[in-house]
Amino acid sequence: MKIGIIGSGNIGGNLGKHWAKAGHEVLFSSRHPDQLQDIAREAGNNAKAVSLNEAWEAKADVYLLATPFKAIDELSEVYAGEYSDRVIIDATNPYPERDGEMAQEVRDSNRNASEYTAMKFNTARTAKAFNTIYADHLKDRAFRDTDKLAIPFAAQDEKSKQVTQQLIEDIGFDSVYVGALKDSKNMDPDQSLYGKSVTRKELEAML
Length: 207
Prior knowledge:
- By secondary structure, this protein is an alpha/beta fold.
- The protein has a single domain, classed as Rossmann fold (3-Layer(aba) Sandwich).
- An eight-stranded mixed sheet has the order 3-2-1-4-5-6-7-8, sandwiched between helices.
- The protein is globular and about 40 Å long.
- The two termini are about 30 Å apart.
- The mean pLDDT is about 95.
């Protein structure tokens, strides 16, 4: 698959390197792509650094959103013509202390964070994953054959479910389907699955 990484920090950077290692074509993107040359080089021949515009124009199969939550509004508006029918994996989290009033409003509303993202990227197929795991564990515990960590995920439809499950398992984690986006509240900050690095059996017990 061709995967556009929107936000190439700890989560996006590590996932991009893992997916490149697993054989996917990875586009690390930033407003300053020259700052991503090192990470693209580390990721190997399957990866390159591009601008945000180039990433969206590449019509990737999948986009990983790993930006601050406050960027969702602008990204969804500016690139509205580019992501129709694409799978978007939302790894963002609303932190009011960083993201401001809009994040607090989402946390106070009757919709969860992934539903907000899906509403904004309304022509895409949205899934939620990778927002509950610590970046260090994502980096260091990939590609294990035993004692695998489980990644909970939710998805809007069958295609986003299948793609997200594959991308979790391709890099050596166990996937645990939580349900539709409306069922992903327990993945949000301060909820039961947030910040938990556990096995499939332990995660399923939490559900």
